[in-house]
Amino acid sequence: MHSAQAPELAGAIERLSTLLRHLSPAGLSLTAAATLATLSRSGPIRLTQLAAIEGVSQPAMTQLVTRLERTGLVARSSDPGDRRAVLVALTSDGEAELASRRATRTERLAEMLAHLSPADQQALADARPAFDALIRLVDPRTEGDPS
Question: What residue stretches are annotated with the HTH marR-type domain (predicted)?
Fold first, then answer.
């Protein structure tokens, strides 16, 4: 792909963001859901590192974690290596919420895919490794994560 194609691809990715919002169940913001997915992949992680991964400020992540903690989806604890730092971990309720969201999104996507031609379905399947490679440039720990 040439850099001249980057604007078209950027536009397609923006439209995919709209599709993701359409597929995702209500209840959590996309940032909150992405944070749960990151915690699922990473295990307990420092709040500062979580903010950096999600691309939000530390105060914004602190507020989000407070809301998620109030609903029982995450828990905070002291970092055993540095008692001044806070670790954030996904709870079993958080794992269940994430699994439910993924199941709903998968069901909705399957319904939409049924309306596409076999060639378009195959083209989407063939594009997945390229999307995974692109995503790993942002977060190397991501291995085809279904979050």
Answer: 1-139
pLDDT tens digit sequence for 82-116: 888 889 999 999 999 999 999 999 999 999 999 99
**Is 70 exceeded by the pLDDT of residue 120?**
yes
Residue 144 lies in a domain: no
Residue with token string 């691809």:
9
DSSP codes of every residue in 87-110 = EEEE-HHHHHHHHHHHHHHHHHHH
Closest-CA residue to 34 (of 22, 24, 48):
24
CA distance 109 to 22: 10
For the chain, what is the radius of gyration of the CA atoms?
17
C-alpha–C-alpha distance, residues 86 and 66, integer Å: 12
Report whether 40 contacts 147 (CB < 8 A).
Answer: yes
Asked if residue 4 is part of any domain, the answer here is no
Range of the domain at 32: 18-138
- Residue 142: which residues within 8 A CB-CB, separation 6 or more? 41, 132, 135, 136
Question: How many domains does the chain contain in total?
Answer: 1
